[in-house]
Write a structure and sequence with these properties.
The chain is about 30% helix and about 30% strand. With about 350 residues, the protein is α+β, with helices and mostly antiparallel strands. A hairpin with a 7-residue loop joins strand 10 and strand 11 (about 205).
Length: about 350
C-alpha cells in the first residue's frame, strides 16, 4: 500500500471517528456518579458543626449516547441505556428538561428543610410566590409567549394562592377568551395577553397550555442555605434532611461514620423510590461509605432496598445497606448506632 493511500485511509478513519462521536443516538446512558459530602454545601445559621463523620448524597451521571458511549454501556455492568422517551417528556427540549430537574431538586430541598426543622421543633412557614412554568405545549396559546422558568404571579391583575386557584380561574373562562398574565423572567416583571384554547380531550376546557407547579419559599429560623445548583432531580431529599437536622441538634448523628444514601423526601417524612440505585451504591462504595440508606418501599418486591442489596453483594462491599421508609426511621437508626471506635 502506498504511503499516500495509507495517509488517506487514516484521515478518513479519523473523520469517521469524529462524525460518530458527534452523532447522537435516541438514547441516554447513565453510570455511577459521585458521593458528595453535604456539610460543605448545607449551612444552618449558628448550627452545630464539627461532625465526626459525614453525610453524603449520591448521584448518577447521565448524558446523551453517541455510538461509542452506547457500545461501552452495552459492555459495562453498571451503565444503563434508556430510550429518550423514558427520560424526557414528548417534545421536551433540553432547556425544559434541565429546568424540570432543577425544580425537582428545589422541591426536594424544601421538603427536606420542612421535615428536619419540624423534627427539631422549629417553626416552618411558607411564602407563596406563584406558579412556575416547567414547559409550554407546542401548538398551545402560551407557546412562544411564556418560557420554562417563568414565574406567573397574577392573572387579569388578580394574585392567587395556589396552582389550584390559578387553574380554577382559567377554567371559569371560555375557549377564545383572553387572559392577561403577569410574570417574572430573569428578575423582571412582564405582562402578556394569551387567548385560551379548548383542551383537545373532548372536555372543551379552556387552557393556557403550560405545565406548571406551585412555587413557594420556605421561611425558617434559623436560616438555612443549601448550595446545590449543579445537582438536579429529587433523590437527595433524605440525605439533605439528615444533614440539616444534624446541624440543628447538639448530638452528632454521624457517630464518626461515612454515611451515604438516597431517596426522595415528602413533607410528611416519607422516603420515596429513586432511579439508579445500584449505580449509587457503586458510587458510595468508591467514596468509602460505611452505611447506605435505601428506600424500603414497605418491603415491596423489587424495591430500591432489594436492588441495592444485589449490587452490594455483587461488588463485595463492606458497606451496610439500611432500609428506611421514613425520615424518623433513619434518625432512629442513627440515634441507636454505637460510636465508631477510633
Amino acid at each position: 500500500m502506498s504511503r499516500k493511500r495509507s495517509i488517506g485511509i487514516s484521515i478518513l478513519a479519523a473523520i469517521l471517528i469524529m462524525i460518530s462521536a458527534l452523532f447522537y443516538l435516541p438514547y441516554y446512558v447513565t453510570k455511577p456518579g459521585m458521593a458528595k459530602e453535604l456539610e460543605p454545601i448545607v449551612e444552618v445559621e449558628g448550627g452545630y458543626n464539627g461532625e465526626e463523620g459525614d453525610f453524603m448524597l449520591t448521584t448518577v451521571r447521565m448524558g446523551r449516547a453517541n455510538i461509542y458511549a452506547y457500545l461501552i454501556a452495552k459492555l459495562s455492568k453498571y451503565q444503563e441505556i434508556y430510550p429518550v422517551e423514558d427520560i424526557r417528556a414528548e417534545d421536551e427540549t433540553d432547556e425544559e428538561y434541565n429546568i424540570r430537574q432543577l425544580h425537582m431538586m428545589d422541591n426536594s430541598k424544601t421538603s427536606a428543610i420542612e421535615v428536619a426543622y419540624k423534627k427539631a421543633g422549629k417553626p416552618v412557614e411558607y411564602t407563596y410566590k406563584g406558579v412556575y412554568v416547567l414547559r409550554t405545549m407546542e401548538g398551545m396559546p402560551a407557546h412562544g409567549k411564556l418560557k420554562p422558568g417563568d414565574l406567573v404571579f397574577k392573572v387579569d391583575g388578580n394574585p392567587f394562592l395556589s396552582s389550584e386557584e390559578f387553574i380554577k380561574y382559567i377554567s371559569s373562562k371560555k375557549p377564545g377568551d383572553t387572559v392577561q398574565l403577569s410574570y417574572k423572567r430573569n428578575g423582571k416583571s412582564n405582562q402578556v395577553k394569551i387567548p385560551l384554547k379548548a383542551l383537545d380531550d373532548g372536555s372543551n376546557r379552556p387552557v393556557v397550555g403550560i405545565q406548571l407547579v406551585d412555587d413557594k419559599e420556605i421561611d425558617v429560623e434559623p436560616d438555612v442555605t443549601v448550595e446545590s445548583e449543579e445537582i438536579g432531580g429529587p433523590s437527595a431529599g433524605l440525605m439533605f434532611s439528615l444533614e440539616i437536622y444534624n446541624q440543628l441538634v447538639e448530638e452528632d448523628l454521624t457517630k464518626g461514620y461515612e454515611i451515604a444514601g438516597t431517596g426522595t423526601m415528602s413533607t410528611d417524612g416519607t422516603v420515596g423510590r429513586i432511579g439508579g440505585i445500584q449505580q449509587k451504591v457503586v458510587a458510595a462504595d468508591k467514596a468509602d461509605a460505611e452505611i447506605f440508606f435505601a428506600p424500603f418501599e414497605k418491603g415491596a418486591k423489587g424495591s430500591n432496598y432489594e436492588e441495592a442489596l444485589i449490587a452490594a453483594k455483587d461488588i463485595k462491599t463492606k458497606m451496610k445497606i439500611v432500609p428506611v421508609d421514613t425520615f424518623e426511621e433513619a434518625v432512629s437508626y442513627l440515634e441507636n448506632l454505637k460510636e465508631k471506635s477510633r
